[in-house]
Amino acid sequence: MSQFDAQLMCLEEGIKRCRRSMRFQGTVIGGLIVVTASLGFGRGEQSRDTQRTVDEIRTKRIVIVDDKGTERLVALSEPHGRAGIFWIDQKGKRRIAGVTAPDGSAGMVFADENGKPRISAQTLPGGNAEVLWFDAQGKPRINAAILSDGRAGISWQDEKGQVRIGASTLRGGSGGISWFDG
Q1: Pairing of strands 117-123, 61-65
Q2: For the chain, what is the largest distance between any 2 Cα atoms, rounded to a whole number of angstroms?
Q3: How far apart are CA 166 and CA 80, in angstroms?
């Protein structure tokens, strides 16, 4: 197995971890936004003289709804240590999620109007970081990663998930590009 193949295997494992952690990561960021928004909740209905300011609100879950009662923003902290925030469109589809996990991973996922993930960015335990781009069916098509040892790589997959092009830097500073036939 070549170093490039080993890197591709590492990138594929990162994709799997990304999918597991993207829900968690959305929760944390959402929680922060919801708490910030909740501090100002209701101020529009109060006169300036009766507005009340609090220094801190503590809760495990906040849900912000629109005029129709549809959830639009959810921030939460879960018992097992995951926290995140989720932005939801008018049709009830999660469009943006930011989450942190107990294992040290954190990330953001951006979904299309059908709720399919299209872009995911994350940091993983041990110092790896990656960005994934998905097609309209939610399949990963481009994966760019930086490993904790400083190596970097990017791969392009076909619609079946097979790597077709890969470029990376290797230990010692050399780099390479590979093309794969179907």
Answers
A1: unpaired
A2: 72
A3: 37
The residue type at 83: A
Q: Which residues pair with 163 in a beta bridge?
A: 157
Give the pLDDT confidence score for residue 51 in this predicted structure. Answer: 78
Burial of 86 (0-12, 13-18, 19+ CB in 10 A): buried
Element spanning 8, H or E: helix 3-39
DSSP E strands in the chain: the ranges are 61-65, 71-77, 83-88, 94-100, 106-111, 117-123, 129-134, 140-146, 152-157, 163-169, 175-179
Percent of the chain with pLDDT over 90: 51
Lookup result for tokens 């829900």: 23
Rounded to 5°, the CA angle 85-88-91 comes to: 165
Residue from 27, 4, 12 nearest 130 by CA: 12
Query: Which residue reads 């097979």 in tokens?
Result: 162
What is the model's pTM?
A: 0.66
